[in-house]
Amino acid sequence: MIATIxxxxxxxxxYYLDDLKIDDVNRTDSYIKTxxxxxxxxxxxxxxxGCQVVATGFLGGGTGQFIETELRKMSVIPQFVHIAEDTRxxxxxxHSGKQTEILESGPNxxxxxxxxxxxxxxxxxxxxxxxxxxxxxxxxxxxxxxYYNKIIEITKSKGIKFALDTSGxxxxxxxxxxxxxxxxxxxxxxxxxxxxxxxxxxxxxxxHELEKYQLEMVVVSLGxxxxxxxxxxxxxxxTIPEVAVxxxxxxxxxxxxxxxxxxxNNGSFEEILKVxxxxxxxxxMNEKTGAIALDKFVEIYSKIKIxxxx
Length: 310
Known about the structure:
The protein has ten helices and 15 strands. By secondary structure, it is an alpha/beta fold. Strand 13 and strand 14 (234-239) form a beta hairpin. The two termini are 35 Å apart.
């Protein structure tokens, strides 16, 4: 079983309009409402890959209840800490070929709620056969910048691998706790190291610099260029096929889901990277976020090349 953590989930609402009228009434019968948040997207793809998943984090109010209901529909086990404030909404308005977003910052987490989650996570790890834990996304208000460190330390103390997909100050703190895997893009890696990375050579040097944190895998996504990854003491370059991109949103989450599946199966570094990149590409080829077409899996998988960089 795989555990996913989403500390600041959302109800994602997408409205489709022919034209957005400012300072006027806009009506539509074309909209979609889904359970959102990076960890929720990871859970969704994991289920499509046939994995057993327990999802945890913080949920509150009617929006939180909606997310729990949606997770059960996906056959994901929800084990969230219920909080006093409501889970946030994130609104996207698609109009005239453009996208306007309104993103709520989310609830403030009280100290007792933060402590309750630590105990909840410990119970999940004690009473389920968890192979790997993944946390995705930003920290909600009220949590200390090193909150992920506490989660990583608890997970590692039970001999379970931990994957983290976050950015900014949270990532800078979290690497000190040596998670098994982090998945930054170039800008997030630049922020982590406080400098620009202008070439592949500089990227490779940056990856070797991160070895001091004892990270087993650092996977740097490069969009359509694939990725470059530090795996143990080796560095690999992943080249991906050119495809017709329909919706790239959530591709990083799908990529993480594929890697988690193989980490849970004790797959090789090459297989972890290959399955992860396959899932990321399949998500980009799909209109829905956090959705992959398994009938195209073998075709895409066979076109991904992984080469060691000496």
